[in-house]
Amino acid sequence: SITCSLIALLSLSAPGVVSLVVPQPNINATVAQNILLSVEYSCRGVATIEWKHVSSWGTTKIVEWKSGNYVNISTVYKDRVTTFENGSIQLLNVGMRDAGYYFITVTEEYGTNTYGTIIVNVYEIIYEDLHFVAVLFAFLAAVSAILICFMWLCNKSLHLFQKKTTHKLTASTTEEIELETIEC
């Protein structure tokens, strides 16, 4: 956009100007997923990037680094954070406690700061719904098996009833024929 281009031009020409773009300010994730907190900063001098996480459990400093120099990752996030030169970080294996606000501060060596915020929502996969579906499926399978057995028994009973009725009819017809021949 024109605004981003102007900020980028200003940051290249004037010392002390820092720009920061946050392309995705809201992120939805599920537990155990990896997420990228994507940003893009520009400044004329050397910048220091700092990420903090703020949630109902408190504020935690995640990482701080100077472009091209050191990276200082908090012990809580030691094996879960990857940093990128553009200021972005990747969080591995997110949990419910990772939901909240992520604040980035980019500070240029001349003291100019710029800030950005990303909101992360983490959702749990609810297996109770799958359990309900499995129980419902088992129940319906059992009911259908019982109905099939009942239909089979009804069919067998009907055939037996038909055989007995046919046998009785044949016997009574034979008696009538015998009676008729005797009367003549």
TrEMBL record:
Domain Immunoglobulin stretches: 24-123
Any one of the GO CC terms: axon
This protein's UniProt keywords: Glycoprotein, Membrane, Signal, Transmembrane, Transmembrane helix
Residue spans crossing the bilayer: 130-154
Organism superkingdom: Eukaryota
Signal peptide region: 1-19
UniProt organism field: Aptenodytes forsteri
Listed Gene3D superfamilies: Immunoglobulins
GO biological process: filopodium assembly; positive regulation of excitatory synapse assembly
Name of the protein this chain belongs to: V-set and transmembrane domain-containing protein 5
Coiled-coil features, chain-numbered ranges: none
Main location: membrane
Tagged with keyword Membrane: yes
Keyword Signal listed: yes
Subcellular location(s) of the protein: Membrane
Entries under InterPro entries matching the protein: CD2/SLAM_rcpt (IPR015631), Ig-like_dom_sf (IPR036179), Ig-like_fold (IPR013783), Ig_sub (IPR003599)
